[in-house]
Every structure is written in C-alpha cells, then in structure tokens.
Amino acid sequence: MSTPDRRLPRWDDAAVTTSSPLPTRNWCETTTLALPERSYAAGDAGQVAGLLAAHADSRVQLLGSRFSYPTLIDGTDGIALHLRSRGPRILHLDEQTVTVTADCPLTEVWEHVRDWGLTLPVCPPVITEQTVAGALGTGTHAQGLGEGLLADAVRAVTYVGADGAEHEVTADDEGFGAFLLHLGCLGVLTRVTLAVQPNTRYRCAKYTTSGSELRDGFSAWNRRSDHVKAWWWVEEDRAHVWEVRPQTSPALASTPLASAHSSSPHTDLNPILEATQARLGDDTGDHDNDAAPQRTVGRFFDYTDTTGDLVEIFRNGIPAPQINMEVGVPLTRFDEAMAALAQVIDASRFRLHYPVILRPTGRSQAWLSSAYAREVVWFGFVVYQRPDGSVPDGSLALLRDIQQALAALGGLPHWGKYFDADLFDFTALPRFEEFRELRERLDPRGRFLGPRVADVLMRGVHQ
C-alpha cells in the first residue's frame, strides 16, 4: 500500500458524520468526560486543523477508547475531539513496518499483521481494544525484559500540532522519546508507523509456587524466558507464574515445584481462587461468578500449559469496572519492593480483590516512563467497583500506602491508571524537564494540556 496523502482538505469540505452520538463517558459508563454539545469527530488531519481553527479559544481534550483512569481526561472545560478515520485504518504494510491511523485499535493492528505471518516486536497488552494513540499516550506495556513499552515498537509519529500543521517525528528527530508517552498534550496524533517482524509460536509453562520462591527466582526466570508474568496472593504468600519461551526452545526441565508440565489440569490454586471470588462478592454485593470481576479470577481454575503466538497466550483481558493501579519499580530493588508490599498489605484491614500482578519490562525510550533507560517490575493492584461506582472502605487508603512504599524505592506510576501524584518525584525522570520544555514550545497556550497533566508537570517543578 502507499502512504496516505499529506495534503490537508478544507474543514468545511470534509465534515465527519457519525451514525450514533459520540461517547462522553468513560468505557464503563461511571464518569462523565465531556459534554455532548462540545464533542466533535475528525476524520483526518485536515479536519483536526479545521476544528482547532474553528475553536481557537478552546482547550482540546483528546478521547480514544476511554480506558484511562478518568482523572487523566477532562473535556468539560473545552471541546472533546474524537479521531474517526473515514477510510481504512491500516495504511501500509511491508516486511519491516506497518503504518496505521492513530485511532486504529491495537486488536486490528495485530490481527492484520498476523494474517501476513507478522507481529509487532512487543508482547500485546491485556486490553487491546485501546487505540494506538491512546497506548502511546499513557505508556501501555506488557511483559518481557527484552522489550520496553508498546511505544518502543514505534518508528514514526505523524501529528497535527497547535499550529494546525501536520508534522512527522521519527527516531532520528529531537523529541521522539517525548511522543512515545505523550499524555495527549503535544498534539493530535493522526498516523503511527510501527516495526513488525515474523510471528513466532511459544510455549507457556504455568505453575504455582511460594512467595519465597517468587522472591528468590523471579530475576532468574526472567533471564531464561522471553516473557514472564506472575500473580502474587500476598496474604496466602502463593504465586502463579507464566514463563513463555519460543516453542522451538527446549522445554523447561523443571519448575520451582520440580514438577513436569503436561496438558493435565492443575487444581492446586483452586481453593485460593474460590476464597478470592467469595471475598470479592462480599465486597461488591455480586456473587455471580459469571460476572466480569469474578471471571478475571476464575480463569485461573484448572490451569494448563498452553502454546500459541503471543496474542493467543496473553490477550486475555476481561474489562470490569475497577480501580487499577500500577507502579514501576527498578528491577534492582525487587526484593525490597516485595518485602515492603507484604508489610503494607498485611497491616491493612482491606484485602485486595485480585492478586498483585508482576510484569517486568526492559529499558524504554519513552521519556516519561518509569522504564526509561532502566529495567523495571510493574506491580499492579486491582480494586473492583460496586455497581454504583463506589469501592469498599479502606481500599483507597491501602492503595495510597502501597504507592508511598513503592515511591520510596524509586517507583513511578503508570500514567493511564490510578495514582496519587503528590507521592511521586517525577523530576527523578532524567528527561522530565526536556519534556516540559518541548511541550511548552509545541503548545505555548496549553491547548492540549489537561488539568491533571498540568498539575503533574507543574508539581514536578515546585516540589
């Protein structure tokens, strides 16, 4: 395929029409993000430029799939802009790269390249319904010390800036690392080019072990396997682990349990899963094990080893209304983080609805990522919401205590999830000041700067 035409059509010659009202609430309909009468769709760079000109005095809030924690998104004080491409969202594919529109869902990207025997050079995240622009905006990642964020697969970004012009940024350009985690405050992404490589099949060995084995073996497991993900039930001090290696690699001779892997179901985790589902039902008032929150726990029942490509193995997310928090801690401080978490969680009267999730990643080029230029372990925490959007007493206090403990170890939060900004030293990011300066240069009036991002960027200056 050829690359898209770079000419910008006039706004009034190319109006976007949509068959249904534009969404103004977050993905699970618990929070209002924008006003219907101030929400607009743009089909291409020309229409984005036209909207910016037509609403020259308004702040612009970009909306994608709306999975980010709601405090990151606020379009009620200006206009909300939805990119809605009018034509194909896959623009070009060859043996090295794929170019897509910024509103293309990750699912569509992966499905298209897999049809041609290719894949992205990063593991897919759990939720692939998010857009490419949104994934770059918030720091979406998966697991594997051989990769950083999903954004580290990017080779070029095209965006419409505050000046209304279309710009392209490549890896050779100044500021490229800023666009790999852009927070929606640098401009409106319209196209993204990502690297591709031949697809590969993998073997996923699954086992359950003790918390002490997790602490002692986690680094070694990550050195011997391409992708490792773990779930740690802190109170029971048990961990469920997935080690993923190419199918052509020798199978793991043993696990920490010294047990051979086979296709037979393993039931050793089932009692903990049953207790977790019961506790979750008590807290949310819903004991239906077919409900989304319970299914996120129930999928571990009777686990078995699996084979497939990385999409088949890891794309298993079940969206459910929740408070989702994640903090990236330097891998070198993993043991300290485990000890601190055990102490904080044991001292709390609230019990988490889901095991602590451990996802290590390698060094990233994204300036604002906790993984910038260092290996990290992302510790994830989940509190499921009740139907009215509320959460159990004590849950937010525990999340704050967890953040405080991990921040003391050099941890920094995932930008698209829940976090308390006052607990973190963002100036510890080596390129933080460069990001601030670039943003001010590209958008001196702050048209793309939302209140949450503005607070964090300025908080880093005044701390």
TrEMBL record:
InterPro entries: ALO_C (IPR007173), FAD-bd_PCMH (IPR016166), FAD-bd_PCMH-like_sf (IPR036318), FAD-bd_PCMH_sub2 (IPR016169), FAD_lactone_oxidase-like (IPR010031), Oxid_FAD_bind_N (IPR006094), Vanillyl_alc_oxidase_C-sub2 (IPR016171). Pfam families: ALO (PF04030), FAD_binding_4 (PF01565). It comes from the Bacteria. Keywords: Oxidoreductase. Transmembrane segments: none annotated. Gene3D superfamilies: 3.30.465.10, 3.30.70.2520, Vanillyl-alcohol Oxidase, Chain A, domain 4. The keyword Oxidoreductase applies. It comes from Raineyella fluvialis. Residues 32-199 form the FAD-binding PCMH-type domain. One of its GO terms (cellular component) is membrane. GO terms for molecular function: D-arabinono-1,4-lactone oxidase activity; FAD binding; L-gulono-1,4-lactone dehydrogenase activity. The keyword Oxidoreductase applies. This is FAD-binding protein.
